[in-house]
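Re: [ENG-882] Designed sequences occasionally contain unexpected residues at chain ends

Forwarding the minimal case from QA. Structure tokens:
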């Protein structure tokens, strides 16, 4: 988070009176059942099983107690485990079950929720395409690309019954919050980073959990050309990977332009993957250099 080049920040953060506040949450979208996609090495408690309910309750309590009420909830992606929204017909029911009915406390129910897509929103590592409300093998490269685009559209096109709080306006977009009395403002730059070198496009495009019939142990060393990576279809894999590269490059191009134009007091970049942990050096520098 950085101050605008046109602003002078003179207050001490340790003693300052805050004018704006926000919640931030990531990897938060629970499944509709109690379980995991993957082999498990450790046991888990009842709190883990109902983690989203616990977090939602804590957020509502903190929002009620806060001296400065949150103007936004910043969502870092992975909004719907394990494979995102699988159909337009099933979308509203899924939103109701794992979003609206979970984060329904009186203190948070109408706060704008500003989102980006995570890898699991695009399919995770399962089949990207759908049959009904389930995952299905993509029969062609065009079907795979259409599947990715629909995964995005089914979330971005949703209208929340609670003050239209769900926001996902594009692969890149800017959302501003502002204190009307003082004019102090924050611009939130939302970026699609699923072209990340680690744990991003490669796993989504390989779809190994689908091709290996859900055997996650077979996916540890799978890559382009492997029979469990897009069924060995390198053209399909490359087209998928290039689509994420296109979205990522466009997001970063717009980010640099919009940051330069921004008059906000503070600036936040919201993404699913950070440049340090998930990008090789070239991608890391691209994400940090303005």
């Amino acid at each position: 988070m950085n101050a605008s080049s046109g602003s002078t920040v003179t207050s001490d953060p340790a003693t300052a009176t805050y004018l704006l506040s926000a919640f931030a949450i990531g990897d938060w979208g629970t499944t509709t059942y109690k379980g995991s996609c993957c082999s498990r090495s450790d046991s888990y408690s009842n709190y883990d099983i109902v983690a989203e309910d616990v977090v939602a309750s804590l957020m509502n309590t903190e929002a009620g107690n806060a001296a400065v009420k949150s103007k936004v909830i910043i969502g870092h992606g992975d909004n719907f485990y394990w494979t995102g929204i699988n159909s337009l017909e099933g979308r509203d029911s899924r939103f109701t079950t794992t979003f609206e009915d979970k984060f329904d406390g009186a203190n948070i129910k109408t706060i704008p929720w500003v989102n980006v897509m995570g890898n699991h929103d695009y399919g995770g590592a399962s089949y990207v395409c759908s049959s009904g409300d389930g995952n299905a093998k993509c029969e062609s490269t065009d079907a795979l690309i259409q599947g990715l685009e629909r995964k995005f559209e089914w979330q971005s096109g949703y209208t929340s019954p609670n003050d239209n709080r769900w926001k996902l306006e594009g692969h890149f977009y800017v959302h501003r919050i502002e204190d009307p009395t003082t004019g102090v403002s924050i611009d939130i730059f939302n970026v699609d980073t699923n072209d990340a070198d680690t744990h991003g496009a490669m796993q989504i495009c390989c779809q190994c959990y689908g091709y290996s019939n859900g055997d996650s142990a077979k996916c540890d060393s799978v890559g382009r050309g492997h029979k469990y990576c897009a069924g060995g279809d390198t053209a399909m894999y490359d087209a998928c990977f290039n689509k994420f590269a296109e979205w990522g490059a466009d997001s970063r191009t717009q980010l640099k332009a919009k940051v330069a134009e921004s008059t906000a007091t503070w600036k936040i970049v919201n993404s699913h993957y950070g440049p340090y942990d998930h990008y090789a050096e070239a991608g890391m520098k691209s994400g940090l250099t303005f």
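QA comment: On inspection the terminal residues look reasonable. Residues 59 and 108 are 7 Å apart (CA to CA). Proposing we downgrade this to a documentation issue.
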